[in-house]
UniProtKB/TrEMBL annotation:
InterPro entries in the record: PPR_rpt, TPR-like_helical_dom_sf
Top-level division of the source organism's lineage: Eukaryota
One of the Pfam families matching this protein, by short name: PPR
Name of this protein: Pentatricopeptide repeat-containing protein
Amino acid sequence: MLWRRMVSMMVLKQIKFRGFEGEITHAIFVKSLCQQTELDRAEEYLRGLLRNGGVGLSSGIVVANLVDALCKNKHFTRAASLVQDFRESGLVPMEQAYVYRLLRENRLEEVYDLLMDMKDQDIIPDDVTMNVTLCFFCKVGMADVARELYDSRAEFGLSVSSMTYNYLINNQLGDASVDEAYIVLKNAIQQGHFPGRRTFSNIADALCREGKLDRVKELVLASLDRNCMPSDST
């Protein structure tokens, strides 16, 4: 343990001496301290960075590493205090960074709970975070959760991307919910987004199978208005 601590300090000194100090190096050092359960030193190091203006902490990843380590070691009060202090500083978007970590670890229920808590507290996640989250829920087959978050887009102030619309539409179709997919597509068109040919063909074929030709005609006309030609099979 002592040997590892000495190596960590030597590496950090060399990094600072060579002028390479930044978010990545902060993250490596804090993660090293967390792996050694040197949580007090890791917190002291982070708070020192905060006192110096928070340079290298802007994405929140470094802080999220320590928050996660504190939680895993059951120091929940300290973790909550750390999140609150860094949030109040206005320098670190803690929630967004923690959402990414939870997604990477497949802790999807916690992602949903965190986003709902953010909404209740009027904390608005950035568009990139929300779009990544929606796509992730679609990929793992949680269409109902993705749709619920999508339906709350006005409360989150979310601007949905074209890629996310494609995921949502195809996911709704996969759940045999053609009407839901059609509604999402209509919203996408109203926002100036139009799906790729494959997505368009999928929803048009599904509508045809249900005999909803008026809706297919509406989609074809909308696609022609945007110079997006349907496939030959449509």
